[in-house]
């Protein structure tokens, strides 16, 4: 069985296991290799983290060639499923988005995220449908992200109803999963999970209920967004400030990764 098909089948199956699918968000080959080595069953990218690591702001500014080359480098060093955050597909034209999705799928990724953001849900549905057509028989797990909660488009019962309406529309268009960042309430999570056939993905945020509680409520997939990047780079800045201002080196070598270990993690190559 081809590598792409095998990884897609594995990735899809991880959404129906008796334990939560917890996916760390990488931003480059090194972070992806580290997360795979830590025991991740799959790796996701964070669009914000990837953009920042390459010197761009988040929000659709990442050039296409930078995106594709980063995906290729990540794929070279991991042998577990990779799902890529494509934001809104970097275009409002469904055919342009579909072309990009097909190019990303050709790199062997198992899944992608596509988001509605502040745009009409009809537009995201059109992008998903066009992507499915462009993919043909090539498998790809399309995780449809709706920003109903993240952007505060509605509250209470109205927010649940809006998210469900969009979930149904995206499922018809060809989505395999539903990503609802900003949803943190156990009751609403349970209501949404019960009323959609799509596996529910939540983004981990401060002061949320535990993963086990949210999984019991019906959520199946959990991602950290840019949190890994922000924590790692926040720590790096703290160490740099201590070194520059106080010439303090005491914490500089704590919990450091070994040179040989890092070299070993990034010596992989894509199967020929």
In short:
This protein is an alpha/beta fold and 272 residues long.
Write the layout of secondary structure elements.
Layout: H1 3-13, E1 21-23, E2 25-26, H2 29-37, E3 43-45, H3 47-53, H4 64-77, E4 82-85, H5 94-106, E5 111-115, H6 121-135, E6 141-145, H7 156-173, E7 177-179, H8 186-194, E8 200-203, H9 211-217, E9 221-223, H10 227-246, H11 259-265
Parallel strand pairs: 1-9, 2-3, 3-4, 4-5, 5-6, 6-7, 7-8, 8-9
Describe this structure in words.
The protein is globular and about 55 Å long. Helix 9 (211-217) links the parallel strand 8 (200-203) and strand 9. It has a nine-stranded parallel beta sheet with strand order 1-9-8-7-6-5-4-3-2, sandwiched between helices. The chain has one domain: Alpha-Beta Barrel (TIM Barrel), CATH 3.20.20. It is an alpha/beta fold and 272 residues long. The protein contains eleven helices and nine strands. The longest helix has 20 residues, at 227-246.
Top keywords for this entry?
272 residues; 11 helices; nine-stranded parallel β-sheet; alpha/beta; globular; single chain; 48% helix; TIM Barrel
Could you give the distance between the termini? Answer: 14 Å
* Shape assignment: globular
Whole-number total of structural domains: 1
Radius of gyration: 19 Å
Largest sheet strand order: 1-9-8-7-6-5-4-3-2
How helix-rich are the residues, as a percent range? 40-55%
Question: If helices are DSSP runs of H or I spanning 4 or more residues, what is the number of helices?
Answer: 11
CATH class: Alpha Beta
The CATH superfamily name is Phosphoenolpyruvate-binding domains
From the 3D structure, determine the CATH topology: TIM Barrel
What is the ordering of alpha helices and beta strands? Answer: HEEHEHHEHEHEHEHEHEHH
Mean pLDDT: 95
Instruction: Report the sheet with the most strands, covering strand number, pairing sense and barrel closure.
Output: 9 strands, parallel
- Counting copies of identical and different chains, the oligomeric state is single chain
Q: Give the CATH architecture.
A: Alpha-Beta Barrel
Derived from helix and strand composition plus strand pairing, the structural class reads alpha/beta
Strand-residue proportion: 5-15%
How many beta strands in the DSSP annotation? 9
Low-confidence stretches: none
